[in-house]
Amino acid sequence: MKGTKPAKLLRAAVVALVLSAVFAGSAGASPVWKFNGTELSGTEKIVGAAVSSSLTIPGMTTTCGHFLYTVKISNSAGTGKGEVTELPLFECGTNTVCTVETITAEKFPWPAHLTTVASKNYLVIEGVRVSIKYGGKGCSVGGLTVPITGTAGGLLDNTTESATFSPTTFSATGTALKFGSNTVEWNGLFPTEAFEWHREQALSVS
Amino acid sequence: MTQGRLSKFSASLTAVLIAALSVTAVASAHTGEWAKFNYCPSTTAGVRKCLQAVTSGGEIVLGKKTVPIVHPVTLQGGFSAENEETGISTMFAATNGETLTKAAQAVPGGLLGIVPPEGSPPLVKALSAFFFENGLTGVNATLELAKPASEIQISQINLVSQEGVAMKLPVKVHLENPFLGKSCYIGSSTSPIIWNLTTGTTSPPAPNKPLAGFGGLLEFKEEAQIAQINGSKLVDNAWSAPSANGCGGILSFLVNPIINSQIGLPAAAGTNTSILNNTITIALAEQVNLH
Prior knowledge:
The structure holds 2 protein chains of 2 kinds.
Chain A: H1 5-28, E1 33-35, E2 38-39, E3 43-49, E4 52-57, E5 60-76, E6 79-86, E7 89-94, E8 99-105, E9 110-117, E10 120-135, E11 145-157, E12 162-165, H2 167-173, E13 177-179, E14 182-194, E15 203-205
Antiparallel strand pairs in A: 1-2, 1-15, 3-5, 3-14, 4-5, 4-14, 5-6, 5-7, 6-9, 8-10, 9-10, 10-11, 11-12, 11-13, 12-14, 13-14
Chain B: H1 3-27, E1 49-62, E2 65-68, E3 73-79, E4 89-92, E5 104-106, H2 122-132, E6 140-145, E7 153-154, H3 156-161, E8 167-176, E9 185-186, E10 193-197, E11 217-221, E12 226-236, E13 244-245, H4 252-263, E14 273-284, H5 285-290
Antiparallel strand pairs in B: 1-2, 1-3, 1-14, 3-4, 4-7, 5-6, 6-8, 7-8, 8-9, 8-10, 9-13, 11-12, 12-14
């Protein structure tokens, strides 16, 4: 059955509206930082301490017992922004004969922003740079300092007030950490809380 | 000593020597992943790590000629600890004397088209026509080290981080064909071709353009006692090549200019390219000794 001309136009308009809504959602609308449901004004410092976190190059996983990050957050022009200012890493080792002699996060601050992909909110950290010097008897890369650089996208969960970094969240945000041409897998779960003006307030993004 | 006793003593001594040699041979016969380091001088003082780099593809553009690498070439041996300031290690020769294995690569089209100068003796014209224009007698190019292994430099960190020179390799190219004789070389120990290979991007003089290498994908084996880099692409297109020498035996004074003209030698920097596709395997010498 052929539709009338006005009906065709109406259908086309509806399709265009639906497509534009879907496109806007998947391309990443901009969420903002909130405390107790109120949009943050000014700045706040949030701290995330890893429950577990590891960096993996095929065949070797580096794990740190203490993996923290500090982010100075704010909202600007309707978008949640941030700067990672600290990432102290302690008690690190590997699942191989290699030991971690030093591990250092460098070139702070690392700019960060919030984004939404497929209805999920992510924190994207740019300019990540971590140098790891391996050692240990028998370690094939002993004495070498391995620079890991790139961007990292972590999923933010309002219920648990945490950020999760995994291959899935990196894929969703189109981010990657690299060592040369190697992709470095980062897995980490970071419960996060305010450290200055909004202590003990519920942190959320939307 | 009687003749019989002397004979028995001699036989015993031979047996002992054979046994001793066998023990020496077994000592470097590693197994599994470690077999790649069978020719690493892992017990030599100063050797920190063992290396095997197998080039299984790529090409060499030398003046007007392009030679694809079809037959694998292996660089093997040991290397020193990194210099703390430069990060550079120097190579130690392989125990079997083949630090760079010799694999002849066919020069596509041979040297067809060679036309000796008009004033060449009839014999040269006839030989040239016979060997180069019949389409049957090909020309092979074999890459050889032009300097001792100690002149090879390696930067492990540059190799994987795609920055700077990862490997400095002094080489010469041996051209082989019955007419060219056994001593036809491009490059020599006194005038080597120097490749400053990178896995990053080159900055060559014109007419060559920047060429991107690739650091390859790192894979740890044997609990990270062995590091293997798969799919590494080492490139250099800023090197120059000298004229050919020793081609044609006693007729070299006539044949060298012909070869130079045919290949385009000497070839200035910016007209040559080397692309080496590798699998590189590295382990600590002390760990190699334990396996």
